[in-house]
Amino acid sequence: MAGLLRPATWGLFSWRGYCSRGTLSAGFVEALKAVVGSPHVSTAAAVREQHGHDESMHRCQPPDAVVWPQDAEQVGRLAALCYGQGVPIIPFGTGTGLEGGVCAVQGGVCINLTRMDRILELNPEDFSVVVEPGVTRKALNTHLRDRGLWFPVDPGADASLCGMAATGASGTNSVRYGTMRDNVLNLEVVLPSGQRLHTAGRGRRFRLGAHLPCVPGPRKSAAGYNLTGLFVGSEGTLGLITAATLRLHPVPEATVAATCAFPTVQAAVDSTVHILQAAVPVARIEFLDEVMMDACNRHSKLNCCVAPTLFLEFHGSEQALAEQVQRTEEIIRHNGGSHFSWAKEAEERSRLWAARHNAWYASLALRPGCKGYSTDVCVPISRLPEILVQTKEDLEAWRLTGTIVGHVGDGNFHCILLVDPEDPEELLRVQAFAEQLGRRALALHGTCTGEHGIGLGKRQLLLEEVGAVGMQTMRQLKATLDPRGLMNPGKVL
Amino acid sequence: MAGLLRPATWGLFSWRGYCSRGTLSAGFVEALKAVVGSPHVSTAAAVREQHGHDESMHRCQPPDAVVWPQDAEQVGRLAALCYGQGVPIIPFGTGTGLEGGVCAVQGGVCINLTRMDRILELNPEDFSVVVEPGVTRKALNTHLRDRGLWFPVDPGADASLCGMAATGASGTNSVRYGTMRDNVLNLEVVLPSGQRLHTAGRGRRFRLGAHLPCVPGPRKSAAGYNLTGLFVGSEGTLGLITAATLRLHPVPEATVAATCAFPTVQAAVDSTVHILQAAVPVARIEFLDEVMMDACNRHSKLNCCVAPTLFLEFHGSEQALAEQVQRTEEIIRHNGGSHFSWAKEAEERSRLWAARHNAWYASLALRPGCKGYSTDVCVPISRLPEILVQTKEDLEAWRLTGTIVGHVGDGNFHCILLVDPEDPEELLRVQAFAEQLGRRALALHGTCTGEHGIGLGKRQLLLEEVGAVGMQTMRQLKATLDPRGLMNPGKVL
C-alpha cells in the first residue's frame, strides 16, 4: 500500500551525524532559482545541515537544497515543481520542533518560510490577526503590545505561529486559552499540487485579485468539513501553511503569580482538580517535581522548597484576582500545600516564575555535557498522580536522571531526561523509558503526545494509540491529499 | 467525477409533500431484521414519512426502511450490509435539524440511533462524560444535576448530543464555552464499511474486550490528524457517530441575567465588542431586533421596549458577578443603552429571558398559519451592524416579514422569516432573500452557516464560500471515506 511506512523509528534515535545526499540535478536547482531568485536557493553543505535537524535528538538528515520563497505564489510554484519531479518537500519554520519533524529522511527540498514574515491584517474589534508563516509568537505579541490584545499559546521556544499550527502546539496558557487547535480560525495552505486552499473560506477579496491571502473569517462556522482542524497538527505532511488567521485575546487587566509546595504529587494534582472544579479561571497551573525544584534552586540560585510544587498564574481585574487568589489558597491549604509566594508586579512575577522558565537549562545543568530529551504524554487529569509515581519509579529502574515539569491543568507533563550523547547504551535506555511511558499513558486513556507531535519518533506509539482503523483512516487521508507521498515524507504515519 | 453533485438545491425548497419510494427487496429487509430483530425494523409509510424530514421546510423524502439498532456492533453490521448492497445510509437522531440533513434524497435505510441512549461513563474529576447517540443535551444535564457539572452547548431544540456533534451545533453559551467543535474530545464512528473508528484514540480497554465504546481521553492531543475535528460537523456524510466523549464544565456558583435596550443596532454591537474587549467573561450575549421584541411583547404579554435589545447572562462567584454586572452596565450606558433589568433568582431570570426563549413561537405568531424559516449567517463581529442594517433593508425590498435574533458575541444571527406554505411565490422570495443574505455574509468574510450546517439547502453557498479548491478537497475527503457515496447522500457536497 502506498504510504505504508515501517513503524520502527527509534533506530533514528542516535546522535547527530551528518549524512550527505545531494541527488538534485543542476537543471532542477536552476528551476528552483527561476522561481525564487538565485540568492534564495542554497545547496551549501552547512546550510543543508542546519536545516536537517530540529532541537530533538534525531539524527541530522539534511535536505538536498534549501529555498526561501517570498510569497505564497512562489510556494505554490515550488510545490508544483517538486511534486511534478517526484522530489520530497519539507516545510521549515524556526526549526524548534522536538520530534524530528524537519529531518529530510528522503532528501528533497526544504522550503524555509521565515522570510515571509509580515503581519498582514490586524482586526482588533474581531480579535483576529492574519500572519505569514515566518511571524513568531513573540514577534506577534510585540506587535500587539499597545493594542490591548495578545496571543496566548506559548510553547517554550519562540516558534513561528504557522509552525505551531502545523505541530498542534500548546504550552502553559492552554488550561485557560486553549491550544493551537482552538486558536486558529483559518489557514492558507499550499497543497502538493501547488494549488492554494483556504481552510475556512476564501472570502470575496480573491475575486478582485486582492493582496490578502487569508481572510479574517468568523469566530465559528458549520460550513462543510473542518479543514482547518485537519491541517492543524498535520506536521507538514499534507501541505505547506502560508498564512494563518489567529484568534486574539484581550490583555488581562492584572496578573498575579504564585508558587506553593506540596507533601505529595497526589496533593498537588488534587489541588489542581479542585481549583478547576471550583471554576477558578486559572490561566496557568504548572507542576514541577522535587528533582526539578532542586535543579532550579542550584541553577538559578533560589531557595525554594525541594518538594512537588505548583506554579500558578491568574488573569483578571484587581477585584476578581483577589477572590481567585483567596479561593486557590483555601483549596491548596486544604490539600496540605504550604510555602506560598504571591507576586503581582511584573518583575516579582518573573523572579517567582524563573524556576519554571529555566526548567530546561536547570535540568541540563544537573549533568554537564549531557543533552536533554523531553517526553510529552498527556492523560486524563485523574490519572496523573498514578502515572507520575510510575514515571519516577521507572526513572530509578532504568537508572536515568530526569526532571518532571507539567501543564497539570491539561494532564500533560514532560520528563526531561539527561543523556550522555557519547553513551549509546544510555541512549537505548532513554528510548526504552520513553516508549514505556508512552504505553503507560495509553493504558490510562491518554496520548503519547500532548503538544510536541508524532514526527519521526512516535509513529509506533501512534499506531498503538489510534489502532488499526484509526491508522488506516489517517493513511487514507494522507494518500488522498498527497498521493505521491512527497509532503514531509516519513513523518506522522 | 464520483460524488459530484449538482449545486442547485433550492429546487427542493418546497413545502412537504410525501413522496413514496420503497425499493428494498423483501430479502434485504429480512437481512436488516436479522441484525436488529424484527421489532426494530419498519417499512410502514407513516414511520418512513416521519423519518423523511427534519424541522426545516425541505420536502419530506422518506427512507425505504427505518431501523433502530441497540448497540454499535449492530450499527456496524447494518452499515456493512447496506454498503455492500449499494443502499444509502441516513443517520437519524432527534430529527430536529434545520437544513434537511435527514431527507432520504436517494431513499435507503434510515438508522435511528435514539434507542442507544445510555450515559456510559461519567468522570467528574476529568470533566468528561461518554454518551451513546440517543442521549439528548437535556437528558445529560438532568443526569449531571447533582454533580456540580453541566454541558453548555444549547441549540434551541433538545437535540441528541451526537447529532449536535454531527451538525457542529452551538447556541447561546458558545461565546464563553465554545461550540461542539470545542467540546467533543473523542468519537466512536462506524465507517461505511462497518469498521469502528475511535477518532482520538481507542485506549487499552479494547484489548480486553471491555464494554466502553469510547474512551474518556485526555483534554488535548497532538497525535496524528485531528479525526475528531473532521467528523464534528460532517453531517452524517462520512460515518455514523455511535458514542461521544464530551467535555463538561463546572456549574457556576451564581448566575445573573440582564436585558437592556439600545437606540441603534450599532450601539448594541459596539457594547458587545467593548464587553469582550474588557475581558468580561460574559456567558451569553444575545441580540433581538425591535421587530422581534415587538413580537415577544405580543406573544408573551410583556412590556419591553420595542428597540434593539441585548439579553445577557453572567456566570461566576457572587463577588465576580457583582463586578461583571457593574462593568457591563458602565459599557452599555456609555453606548447609549437604557432600560436595564437585572435578575438573579432562577424564576426571575426565566421571566426576563422568556422573550429570548420564545422567540421562535413569538415570530410565528406574527402571521398565524405561517411557517418559519431561519437563516444562519455568521460574520466577523465588526461587520455585524452593516449586515444587520442590510438585512432589514432586504426584508423590506423582498416584502417579507422577519424577526432577527442573534448570538452576537460570535457574530452569528438568525433571521426568522414567516412564510405562507400555500404561497409558492412567497417561498421563492424567501429563497432569494436567504441566498442574498448568505452572499452578503461571504462578502463580509463570514460564513453562510454558523451552526445549522449545510444540509441540502446551502450547497451552492458552500461552494462560493470555500472556493473550487476547498470544494475539491472536501469532495476528495468524502470520496476517500465513502467511496460509493452512500453515507447520507446529497448532503453538504
TrEMBL record, chains A, B:
Known cofactor(s): FAD
EC numbers: 1.1.2.4
Single Gene Ontology MF annotation: D-lactate dehydrogenase (FAD) activity
Cellular localization per UniProt: Mitochondrion
Chief site of localization: mitochondrion
Gene Ontology annotations for the cellular component aspect, listed alphabetically: mitochondrion
Protein name, UniProt field: Probable D-lactate dehydrogenase, mitochondrial
Catalytic activity: (R)-lactate + 2 Fe(III)-[cytochrome c] = 2 Fe(II)-[cytochrome c] + pyruvate + 2 H(+)
Described function: Involved in D-lactate, but not L-lactate catabolic process.
GO biological process, one term: lactate catabolic process
Family statement: Belongs to the FAD-binding oxidoreductase/transferase type 4 family.
Record InterPro entries: FAD-bd_oxidored_4_C, FAD-bd_PCMH, FAD-bd_PCMH-like_sf, FAD-bd_PCMH_sub2, FAD-linked_Oxase-like_C, Oxid_FAD_bind_N, Vanillyl_alc_oxidase_C-sub2
Residues annotated as domain FAD-binding PCMH-type: 59-251
Principal EC category: oxidoreductase
Key words, A-Z: Acetylation, FAD, Flavoprotein, Mitochondrion, Oxidoreductase, Transit peptide
Quaternary structure and interacting proteins, as annotated: Interacts with CSRP3.
